[in-house]
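Quick start: read one record
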Amino acid sequence: MRTTALLCLLLGFSTQSIAQPAAISPRGMGDSSETKGPATLIHAGTVLAVPGNGPQSTMTIVVRGDRVEAVESGHQSAADLGIGSATVLDLSEHFVLPGLMDAHVHLRSQPFDRQVTRGFNRGRTSLTPAQKGVNAIIYARRTLAAGFTTVRDLGSDDQSVFAARDAINRGRVVGPRILVSGASVAVTAGHADTTNVDQNSPTLRMQNAVCDGEAECRRAVRYQAKMGADVIKVTITGGFASNTKLLPQMFADELTAIIDTAHQLDLKVAAHAYHPDAIRDAVAAGVDSIEHGFLVSDDGLRMMKREGAFLVPTISASYPPPFLRQIDPPSVRLRNEYAAFERAYKMGVKVAFGTDAGTFAHGDNAKEFGLMVRYGMTPEDAIRAATVVTADLFGIDDIGTLEPGQLADVIAVTADPLDDITALHSIDFVMKSGQVAKRDGVMLDGMTYPDFVGFSTPER
């Protein structure tokens, strides 16, 4: 401490002078309600405060600071509640519910970026990490506008989405909370191995989380944790988006090493897995969620239910982007043949909401609701999957409902999604942590520029 103080004195500023980024923690993601601001009263026509418990009509949600303070019957005034003055937001013609969550997105890109790369990227064959970071900020804002206040980015690199997450957490730009995995852990020549064989150095392998054998796989997890990962993503089979087929790609000892190391670091593990044998291996090793799971067996589903593992079905991932113009896509035929989502839901496996946005346009995340309902889930259960269940998967206990003490993540639509789930395709109002981001269908200021204490020249 004496050395630090001396250095600060020599440099001319104190240890308190630089605003630090909010701590990255799955519980709360850096939000704080220590300083309570003035009250905001949301007059709601209908409120689904706890998805799964049914809606209530004509309610007032009291928000103070970044938290829900109370949910009261009727449209109450500040005087009625004895709280002095308050801002009133009139959503009396709206259906109000908690902010939505998407457990599987890829914020750094989407299919249409390839066209930009070919035409305008100065001879490069792919986007740079800097360009992907800019993309992540843009797409994160688009995701928030679609009503998703918390997302999990599964599979990027060691720079781009970390930068977007940190900018959002520091209040530099507007976007959802993001849990970031960094690069997907994969074996050599596996589904997520993007390294070039001519440049396959140990450093490049580590940056891209490519590993073989227990020791190297443990190191890959620790590297992602060092970079600030909130979750570990591992690809243990091929997938629709690669030429590695759908078979298992990782030995059980490698998979166990990855999961054990992540859990030792208090990080959850999401496994990209299609093949039933790989899914059983992952569940036996203690994985927290199976992503996609299109070929899961009934035995695998029973294991998942017994062990408490979540399925993130990403039904949307089986539907190729429209610009590919595929007739009778094999991915859709395979999904329909195995009906993994329907079987999991019927069996009582915990089903969280995830879309694989990035394989299609960001902001269209809500189309997954329509697919879930089409294949047998009730509208309220689909909303519960995107709130209560996904919050449980994330391990964040103060989001997912509109109850006292919860973070004030509030969205509103102009029609009843319990009657027609497609109402969630058009979000009219978004509040994240007590701050209004969208009103009357229009996103508000995209960036904020808080001054950094201790610097004489504010950022312009």
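The radius of gyration is 23 Å.
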